[in-house]
Design goal:
The protein is built from 16 helices and 28 strands. It is of the alpha/beta class. The strands form 7 sheets. The protein has an 8-stranded parallel β-barrel, surrounded by 4 helices.
Length: 622
Amino acid sequence: MKRFILSLLMCLLFFYGNAQSASDKFNIIPIPAELNQGTGHFKIDASSKIGYTNQQDKKVAELLQQHLKNTYQLKLALQKGSQGKSVIHFSSPESDTLRLRESYELSVSPGRIVVKGKEAGLYYGLQTLLQLLPEKNSKSLDIPAVSIKDQPLYAYRGLHLDVSRHMFPVSFIKKYIDYMAAYKLNNFHWHLTDDQGWRIEIKKYPRLTAVGAYREETMIGRHNQGPNYNFDGTPYGGFYTQQEIREVVAYAAAKHVNVIPELEMPGHALAALAAYPELACGDRPGPFKVAAAWGVFEDVFCAGKEQTFETLEGILDEVMELFPSSYIHIGGDESPKVRWKACAHCQKRIKEQGLKDEHELQSYFVQRMEKYLNSKGRKIIGWDEILEGGLAPNATVMSWRGESGGIAAAKQGHDVIMTAHSNGLYFDLQQSLRDQQEPLNIGGYAGLEKVYLSEPTPKGLTLTEHKYILGVQANLWTEYIATTKKVEYMLFPRLFALAEIAWSKPESKQWEKFSGERVATHLATLDKVGTTYRVPEVIGLRDTSIHAPSYTIERLQPSVKGGKIYYTIDNFDPGDTDLEYTGPVTISAAAGKERIFKAVVISPSGRKSNYITLKLSNAPAK
C-alpha cells in the first residue's frame, strides 16, 4: 500500500511539473488555473471556418473574425455549428460543467479549436485565444495544441480612473476599457467628481457643469512643496454629456466590464459648492471656487440641511438612469469635520439624532444616502473612512489606507474590495526608487514587483471571513497625469500584475517567470502597436555595491522581448551608442579605485528603461 501511495505521489508531482512548465511556455496573462500542452498545432488559413452554437455565441465569433481580418488580412467564413474540418467553434454549453459565468474551457488540437463558456466566460476564452495567436508578421498562423480550464480567483477585479483632476476623451476611456477587458478585469471605477472638477452632466442641476466643471488654473508641481505653489494660469475644464456616458457604459457592457460611477460626498465637494453654495455649512455660505490646487479642503456638504440631501438624491436619480451598475460609489474619504463643528445646522442634527459627535454625523450622512440608494435597488461602495462612527448596514468598503479597514469591515460581515495603498495598488505612485528618473508623480513607491507579490486577501482574517473579500482594485489618480500617454505609462506594465493577482491562484506566482517571460512578451506587443509603457529595468541585476578587484556579470536579460541591453563602465548614463551586452562581462578596478557599471534596456521601438548600477570598489569595506 505504501509503495502504491508513493507511486501515486510521484505521478502527481510529474503531472504538476509538466503542467507548470507548459504554462511557462505560453506566456498568457493572467496565467490560467489549469493548462496542459498537447501535441501538434492548429493551422489557421483561408479554408478555416468560425462556428457558433447560438446567437449569443455568434457575437464572440464575430469578434475573432474581425480581429483576424484587421490583424492578418484573413477573412474567415462564419457558420452555425461545428461541422467540417479546421473549425474554431464557440459554444455556450447547457450543462453545468462550467458553474461560474466567467469560467471557460479552451481546447486546441490539430483539427479543431473549441472555446466553451457562459456569458463573460466565452469572451474571456476568446481573450486567451488571441494571446495564443502568433505575431502579426508571422509566415503562418499556427497555434500550439493546448487544453485550458480557467476561472477567476476573485469575482471583483477592478481598475479606477480619476477624471476630475484631468479628464480624457471618450475615445481614450473606451481604449482604457479595452485594456481592462483584454486582461479579464471586470469593473471600471469612474471617479467623476472632486474638488477640482465636476465631470458628469446633471440636467436638473445645470450649474454643476456650467460652473463646477471649470477651474481658473491648475497647480504645477507637487502639492507638498509648501505655500509657494505655482500655477499654470490656464483655465481648465470640461465634462461628459449624458449621451457620452451612455455610449461608454454600453461599450463597456459589450466587453463584460461594469462601470461604477463615483460621486464624492460629503467631502471633496468644492466643485459642487462653487455651483450651489447653499449646500455648504452656514446661513450665508461661499462664494467658493473650483479648486486649482491638490489636497484636502475643509468646505464640505452640510449634513444639517435637508436641501443637501434633496439635491444629492436628485443627482443620484439621474446617475442611476445612466449607470445600470448595482454599485454606486459615494466616496466618503478625507472629509474634514471643521465646518460641521461650527455649523448650527449640523449641531442641531447631531442633537436631534442623538449622535455622539461629528464622526457619527458622517455615519448618519452615509447611512441616509445608502437607504435612499437601497430603496432604488442599488448598493453603495465607500472608501474605508465610512467605517468611522459606525458603518452603514449594507455598505461595501474599499480599503485604501492599508489592510486594517478591510479587516475591520470583513470582521463586521461587510463585503470588502482591497485597494491598499501599502500593497502598491495606487498606480499614481512612482515605479522606481530613483525619484529623479521618474516623471512627475505623487511620490511613494509602487513598482511592478511590489504589485505582483502583494496578496489581496489580508492574513488577519479567518477562513470564514475570507468570503467577504470580493476582490481587488488598482487606482489611478490624475493630479500629476495630464495626458493619455502618461496614463498608459503609469498603467503598464503594472496592469499585468493587477490582472494576475486578481484572476490567478496565489500558488501559481513565479516572479522570475512573470517578469522575464510573460511581461517581456506582452510589452513587446505594446511596443509594436505604439502604446506607451514604462520599460522595466534590466533583468538579472539590481542596484548594488561589491567590494572586490573584479566581478563578472554572468547573465542579463532585456525586460522587453526583442529589446537590447547597453552598458557603460565610466559612470555615464548608457544609450544605444554604447557597448551592447551580448554575454558575460567582467569588470575590474585598480587597487583603491572603483568602477561603476550601468546597464539600460532599449526596446525595439526605442523606448528606454532606467539604468541599473553596479558599483565595484577595490578598497576595504568600511
